[in-house]
Each structure stands twice: as structure tokens, then as C-alpha cells.
Specification:
Blueprint lengths: L3 E3 L3 H25 L4 H9 L3 H31 L11 H14 L14 H25 L1 H7 L4 H30 L9 H4 L1 E3 H7 L1 H8 L2 H12 L12
Antiparallel strand pairs: 1-2
């Protein structure tokens, strides 16, 4: 029977589902506007009931994505300040060491892979890419949605700049997700064809031990310490020294 460890809370799973859904809708309704001459663009626009329908879905999804981003960052900052959450997704020096160790392992220069904690350097890179890229998309999206208001207070040149940034950042985010995220989350050796952890919230303990060894050792104790403890309990108690002769 497979033993499981809890990896994602219910709140984290709901946030991932909302982000995944809004991201897909934003891509399906955004790319037909960027690549409007492509045949697939006309097909996608027709699915959403025409250009007005596609734009409506795009804007509603954008507002939902912005609201989720604001909620997520506010909750994370508040929980950190109240010492209810550890900053496990903030990159540190150990991530650089792990990346070097993993690269040396891939090149055959090291015998062991890096031992990762709760999140490895690739997951942190992806998380912060989503956060920072999302903030760019939100800011430029609001500029494009309220151009008259923006032009009242800021230079008008900002509007075409926002259009270029919004369009290209969206394309880059899409390419990163379908290559980096889909591969690491579902297609990598040992995970293929599908990783259900973000949907069920659970991960097999053996997989946790293999992919997040430092977190496993912290939760379950390292094998070395366990072996040493077992050995200590099996060793006979030292004999009392014999009394000295008269």
C-alpha cells in the first residue's frame, strides 16, 4: 500500500485551478487578437461567439487573474509577517548550489543528484516568473482597458508600449508554460504521463524522498539518523566495572 504525504493545501489547489483556468481562457481569447490573420484565430473567435464575445471573456478572465494575484500576494505577505508561513519559495544561496550540483550530475561529474527542499530552484524560477510576468500583464492590461484615464495623467506613448509588452509577455508566458511547466510537471522521467499532486494535494512518500530529500529528512528523519538510532537501541548496555580488589 502506497503511503502519501500532504504537499498542497486546499487553498493552494483552488488557487492553482483558478490560475490554470484563467490562463487557458486568456490564451484562447488573446492569441486570436494577436494573430488575427491565422485560420485558427477565426475558428477560436467563432467558438466564443464572435470578436465581442472573445474580448468579453478575455477581460473577465483578466480581472479574475488580477484579483487572484492580489489575494495571493496579500495573503502571503500577511502570513509571513505573522510568522504563519515560511518563505520556502524565496530563492537563496542553496538554490545556486543545488543548480550547480544538478548540472554536474547531468554532465557525469557528480555521482549524486542535488537534495532539494520543499521547492527546488526550477520551481522557484517558474513561480517568480509567473508572479512577475503576471504583474506586467495586469499593469499593461489595465493601461489598455483604460487608455483615456492613463493618458490624462501619463504620457500617451505609454499606451502603444503597453500593447507591445502585453502581447509579447503573453506569448512568452504561453511558451514557457507549454515547454518548461508541462515538461517538469507532467512529462519528465519518473512523472510521465501525469502528476496529480496539485489536484489531490498528496504525493507518494517515496517520491517525496526522491525529489525533495531535505524536506523528507525534516519530516520523517534521515535514513542515517534512523539507522544510528536503531543501532544504538540494539547495542548492549556497557558492563559495570568490576570492583577493585581489597
Amino acid at each position: 500500500m502506497t503511503d502519501y504525504a500532504v504537499r498542497f493545501s486546499k487553498k493552494q489547489r483552488i488557487e492553482h485551478f483558478v490560475v490554470m483556468t484563467t490562463f487557458v481562457l486568456l490564451a484562447l481569447t488573446g492569441f486570436p487578437q494577436k494573430f488575427y490573420e491565422a485560420g485558427a484565430a477565426r475558428f477560436l473567435v467563432k467558438i466564443f461567439g464572435g470578436l465581442d464575445g472573445a474580448r468579453l471573456v478575455h477581460r473577465v478572465s483578466g480581472f479574475l487573474f488580477a484579483a487572484l494575484t492580489f489575494f495571493h500576494l496579500s495573503a502571503a505577505i500577511l502570513s509571513t509577517l505573522q510568522h504563519k508561513m515560511k518563505m520556502t519559495l524565496v530563492p537563496d544561496r542553496q538554490d545556486f548550489k543545488d543548480a550547480v550540483q544538478q548540472l554536474r550530475y547531468y554532465l557525469g561529474l557528480a555521482d549524486e543528484e542535488a537534495k532539494f527542499d520543499r521547492f527546488d530552484y526550477r520551481q522557484k524560477f517558474e513561480y517568480w516568473g509567473l508572479v512577475l510576468g503576471g504583474l506586467v500583464m495586469i499593469a499593461t492590461g489595465f493601461i489598455l482597458y483604460y487608455p483615456m484615464v492613463v493618458a490624462r495623467f501619463l504620457p500617451g506613448e505609454l499606451i502603444p508600449m503597453a500593447k507591445v509588452a502585453h502581447s509579447n509577455e503573453g506569448l512568452m508566458a504561453f511558451l514557457v508554460v507549454i515547454t518548461w511547466h508541462i515538461y517538469n510537471a507532467h512529462l519528465a522521467p519518473g512523472i510521465f504521463p501525469f502528476d496529480p499532486a496539485i489536484f489531490t494535494g498528496k504525493i507518494p512518500v517515496e517520491r517525496l524522498k526522491h525529489e525533495h530529500r531535505r524536506e523528507y529528512d525534516r519530516l520523517y528523519g534521515s535514513d542515517v539518523k534512523t539507522a544510528e538510532a536503531a543501532k544504538a537501541t540494539q547495542e548492549p548496555a556497557p558492563e559495570k566495572p568490576a570492583p577493585a580488589d581489597g
